[in-house]
Write a structure and sequence with these properties.
By secondary structure, the chain is mostly helical. It has 2 domains: 94 residues, no CATH class; 96 residues, no CATH class. Helices cover 44% and strands 7% of the residues. It has 9 helices and 5 strands; from the N terminus they run H-H-E-H-E-H-H-E-E-E-H-H-H-H. Strands 3-4-5 form a 3-stranded antiparallel β-sheet. A two-stranded parallel sheet has the order 1-2. The longest helix has 16 residues.
């Protein structure tokens, strides 16, 4: 079992990438291992997200046209590989939500949903910003204050100002949303959970 876990760790990046060439035999081998031997419940094929401030050689991260081509050619093949116990599919979240290379979706609600404890003992806005270079937008030092006191340390009566302050700090530090936060922020904004006047005021500020 231990050797099997190590094998999975070594291959954990594979399901997130459709390579820049189509090799159905390689995909079949991967599926055979994770579907039939490991018995994964879900196998999701997707594309790498452009990393922050790290230049990539052409072709490493497919552009929107290339991704659409891969999806068109691979969708039926991949989705027909599902079994009774394993759901297999391919996703292009960037294309579905128009977020390819988009830095962030504002206003951002990550600190309420994905607050993250950094290795330095600070509570950060989210996993994407959980290191000291994003300290200006951190919620605070857990060595000095409790999780919940930091979590609720904002003025609920001036929520628009809180959103404005967060947005300014994000712009200054250059943080980027990952795909789940792009989608989550979009869903929260369109859900009408928050007072439209608050969000409208925020939009006017930025």
């Amino acid at each position: 079992m231990h050797s099997e876990i190590n094998k999975i760790k070594n291959l954990e990046s594979i399901p997130r990438v459709v390579k820049n060439f189509i090799n159905t035999e390689e995909i079949n081998q991967f599926l055979k291992h994770f579907r039939d031997e490991v018995c994964s419940n879900v196998i999701r094929f997707t594309f790498p997200q452009p990393p922050k401030d790290i230049p990539q050689k052409k072709g490493v991260v497919p552009n929107p046209i290339e991704k659409a081509n891969y999806v068109k050619k691979l969708s039926s093949f991949i989705e027909s590989s599902s079994s009774e116990k394993t759901n297999v599919f391919i996703v292009d979240a960037d294309g579905e939500h128009d977020i390819f290379n988009k830095p962030r979706t504002n206003p951002c609600f990550a600190r309420f949903i994905y607050p993250t404890v950094g290795y330095d003992g600070w509570l950060y806005h989210c996993s994407q910003s959980s290191s000291p270079n994003f300290r200006p937008m951190a919620l605070g030092d857990l060595n000095k204050n409790s999780f919940w006191s930091l979590f609720y340390d904002y003025d609920e009566n001036n929520f628009t100002n809180h959103l404005k302050s967060c947005s300014q700090k994000m712009e200054e530090t250059g943080c980027r949303c990952d795909r789940k936060m792009h989608v989550t922020n979009s869903k929260v904004i369109s859900s009408n959970v928050f007072d439209e006047n608050q969000l409208e005021g925020y939009r006017k500020i930025i």
